[in-house]
Amino acid sequence: MDEAPKIEMGLFRRFKRQSGDFLTHIPEQRNYMEWFSLMQHHGTPTRLLDWSHSFFVGLFFAIAELGPKENGELWVVDVKHFDKRIRERFPRKSDRRCAGDDPNAQVHRSFERMFLCATPKQFVCSMNPYRLNTRLIIQQGLFLCPGDITRSFGENLESHFATQQELDKHLRVFEIKHKSREALMQVLYRMNIGEASLFPGMDGFARSFKDVLVFPNPEAMFPPDSPYVKRTWSQGRQ
């Protein structure tokens, strides 16, 4: 993990140099958040972790790819609590502008002073690029950005909680049993939360076909008492 900062900058430089032919908008050279957001969006490994302001969008991502017997987890954190710990780690306001005056890191030195300093500190900061893409808007997305990528995300996150009581107050983990997955997916489907709505375009449309596979039988999607169904499925098979 000690080589992580060097690897990160290598990927960052290579992506900027080689992605121009595929982008409709090219960010400024040192606009770190826009570049990292694009890298994350298209599948390049980055320090960013995708989260959502929406509990229900988060629930979808927590269970969408679960195996038949696999339980899931939905994490809910108080991102405002992060600011308190960040202020302790960065006494000078100019060194923590991403957690205050410049949350989109539009000034490149804001990002460099917090995340690319010679002696990185463990923390997590919620951030987004100033220019939001369609997927971020639809998913009500935000990124959690760890300060020290030589350490795991969990270690960076734990640095915000000095006591177990503090952790219990600002972090919730909901365990989702695999037996509940089908019912929850049906509820989300009826709320129009699925692959097609969260991933606009051909990819989301194609992937949405697997959403209907979570229903154990046709009646789960079209109940017999629905006004759109004139007869029950059992009657139709007689």
Task: Describe the protein.
The protein has one domain. The protein is built from 13 helices and five strands. The chain is an alpha+beta fold. The chain starts with a helix and ends with a helix. Helices cover 42% and strands 11% of the residues. It has helices spanning 4-18, 32-41, 55-63, 79-89, 108-115, 134-138, 153-158, 164-170, 181-190, 195-198, 202-207, 218-221, 233-237, and strands at residues 49-52, 72-77, 124-127, 141-146, 171-176.
Could you give a short account of the major beta sheet?
A: 3 strands, antiparallel
Which oligomeric form is depicted?
Answer: single chain
Q: How would you sum up the global shape?
A: globular
H/E series: HHEHEHHEHEHHEHHHHH
Number of domains: 1
The count of β-strands is 5
- Strand-residue proportion: 5-15%
Content-based structural category: alpha+beta
Radius of gyration over C-alpha positions, nearest whole angstrom? 21 Å
Topology:
Elements: H1 4-18, H2 32-41, E1 49-52, H3 55-63, E2 72-77, H4 79-89, H5 108-115, E3 124-127, H6 134-138, E4 141-146, H7 153-158, H8 164-170, E5 171-176, H9 181-190, H10 195-198, H11 202-207, H12 218-221, H13 233-237
Antiparallel strand pairs: 1-4, 2-5, 3-4
Characteristic key phrases:
two-stranded antiparallel sheet; disordered C terminus; 5 strands; 238 residues; 3-stranded antiparallel sheet; globular; 13 helices
